[in-house]
Inverse folding.
């Protein structure tokens, strides 16, 4: 069994204890709610998109250290980025979580994982992947709502 | 610990999986409210049947098919005696308790409930006793009412008669899978009948741990699952009063449930086949029969005694060690609670608790336990839950208490 230190990296615990970009945004920002039906974790993502740029993002909800730290790191990584960059980052993250194949179809946008690399240990604990991915799928939903 | 001469260490030794070592540590299985482990007696009964006598039931003339039918129907008789049903005709095999409740809602419910009819549930129900009724709300426009809870996790029956006023159904759990609360089944059945409603008892958590007597309850329907009572998964029971089952339309259509089939229609088989369409889970039914024998040999009253002592020990140990840092939901009095401990610990999320306990091979459930309305009431979206059974002892409760310490090391709380 992989060690817990692979999962509970210090940077993950830091984001869990001090989550970044917590809060809500008023309309015209869009929002999306994500639920993990297996465990009851809930997350809400607020996204303010202007001219193809995610100018602001906020996160609310509750959940375990993995879901909350993933949401916190994600919010830092996507804020101020173009939608194309965000799509590429979401893909990169899902590849890291082993739930998407690395493919050449994705536009070759340069994305940096930064702190998010700390979450790669999650893949060794398959039950927790759904915790890590919850905020990312919710962000996708919010961005869909923004373009709708 | 020794209760009434039962050798609990020998009971534990009957469960081969508990000999398993992971990373050099023994398994501490505290998730029996979710699903229970299996003793050799059940494993052997199922594999013997598959090795030496597997055959269809009820439909072939050769000797082995006759033997299989006898084993299958013999298991039904064991279940009948185990819950003190009046007749084997009242014991219907289903996939699990969930299917049993759906069967009632879809057959009795559709035949008897119209728009505006009232079904009374409680705030501590499992989704399996909520969603089938919500489906009838959507389909029929029935009304749901909810019996609330007291602060210590008991049913608040102070307004029971007004809640039941005009109701057609009272459907409730005999034991909460989250709080462990054991409800006053007899009293609730009597109150339902006094109001002209039928009483449905979700006995999924109760039957594996207590003496069950459906006639003493004076209930109308009850249901439970094999896999929580040391039997296999894929087999459950619906018990119903014969006159109600007789009057109900069938559930699934197909082989075995028919009397006659013509181009212009069909007639149904006699009970209980009427509700058992298709080839049933024959191996699982035989496994359930072996599970009933196994539990009966220990004695359900002994099992209840053992679990009360163990629950008391676990609650006292956790409280003595962690004080206010641990909140155990549900009643403190073990007379009215089963061996289910849902808890919150030092602001650490239940997922993280179960992950850290797993490092010590302590298996607990984390999540909403398929009881989201109750979770909302508790102000949590998840809890960690340790649940005990016949193969657990004080060392398992100690292992839980020890392993919780590790959570603080990682989260620094």
């Amino acid at each position: 069994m992989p060690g817990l230190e692979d999962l509970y990296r210090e940077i993950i615990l830091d984001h869990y204890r001090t989550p970044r970009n917590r809060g809500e945004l008023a309309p015209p920002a869009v929002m999306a709610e994500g639920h993990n039906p297996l465990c009851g974790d809930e997350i809400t993502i607020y996204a303010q998109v202007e001219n193809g740029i995610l100018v602001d993002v906020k996160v609310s909800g509750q959940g375990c250290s993995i879901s909350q730290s993933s949401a916190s790191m994600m919010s830092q990584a996507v804020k101020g980025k173009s939608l194309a960059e965000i799509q590429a980052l979401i893909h990169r993250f899902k590849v890291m979580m082993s739930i998407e194949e690395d493919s050449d179809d994705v536009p070759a946008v340069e994305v940096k994982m930064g702190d998010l690399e700390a979450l790669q240990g999650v893949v060794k604990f398959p039950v927790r992947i759904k915790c890590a991915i919850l905020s990312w799928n919710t962000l996708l939903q919010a961005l869909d709502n923004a373009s709708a | 610990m020794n209760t009434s001469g039962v050798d609990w260490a020998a009971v534990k030794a009957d469960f081969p999986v508990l000999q398993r070592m992971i990373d050099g540590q023994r398994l501490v299985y505290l998730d029996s409210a979710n699903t229970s482990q299996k003793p050799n007696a059940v494993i052997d009964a199922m594999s013997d049947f598959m090795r030496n006598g597997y055959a269809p039931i009820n439909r072939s003339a050769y000797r082995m098919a006759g033997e299989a039918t006898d084993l299958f129907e013999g298991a039904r008789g064991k279940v009948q005696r185990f819950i003190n049903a009046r007749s084997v005709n009242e014991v219907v095999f289903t996939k699990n308790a969930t299917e049993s409740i759906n069967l009632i809602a879809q057959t009795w419910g559709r035949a008897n409930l119209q728009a505006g009819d009232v079904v009374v549930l409680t705030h501590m129900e499992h989704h399996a006793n909520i969603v089938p009724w919500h489906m009838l709300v959507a389909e029929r426009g029935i009304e749901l009412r909810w019996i609330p809870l007291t602060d210590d996790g008991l049913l608040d029956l102070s307004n029971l008669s007004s809640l039941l006023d005009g109701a057609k159904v009272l459907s409730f759990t005999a034991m909460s899978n989250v709080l462990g609360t054991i409800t006053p089944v007899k009293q609730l059945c009597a109150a339902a009948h006094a109001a002209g409603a039928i009483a449905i008892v979700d006995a999924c958590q109760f039957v594996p741990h207590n003496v069950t007597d459906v006639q003493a309850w004076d209930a109308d329907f009850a249901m439970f699952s094999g896999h929580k009572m040391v039997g296999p998964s894929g087999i459950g029971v619906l018990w119903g009063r014969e006159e109600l089952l007789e009057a109900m339309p069938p559930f699934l259509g197909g082989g075995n449930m028919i009397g006659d089939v013509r181009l212009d229609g069909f007639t149904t088989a006699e009970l209980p086949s009427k509700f058992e369409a298709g080839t049933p889970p024959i191996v699982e039914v035989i496994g359930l029969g072996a599970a009933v024998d196994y539990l009966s040999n220990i004695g359900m009253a002994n099992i209840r005694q053992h679990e009360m002592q163990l629950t008391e020990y676990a609650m006292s140990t956790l409280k003595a060690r962690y004080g206010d840092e641990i909140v155990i939901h549900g009643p403190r009095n073990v007379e009215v609670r089963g061996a289910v401990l849902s808890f919150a610990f030092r602001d650490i999320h239940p997922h993280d608790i179960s992950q850290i306990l797993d490092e010590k091979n302590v298996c607990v459930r984390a999540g909403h336990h398929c009881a989201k309305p109750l979770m909302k009431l508790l102000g949590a979206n998840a809890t960690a839950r340790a649940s005990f059974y016949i193969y657990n002892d004080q060392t398992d409760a100690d292992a839980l208490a020890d392993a919780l310490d590790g959570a603080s090391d990682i989260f620094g709380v």
Observations:
- Chain B touches chain A through 19 residues (CB under 8 Å).
- Residues 172 and 391 of chain B are 28 Å apart (CA to CA).
- DSSP finds 14 helices and 17 strands in chain B.
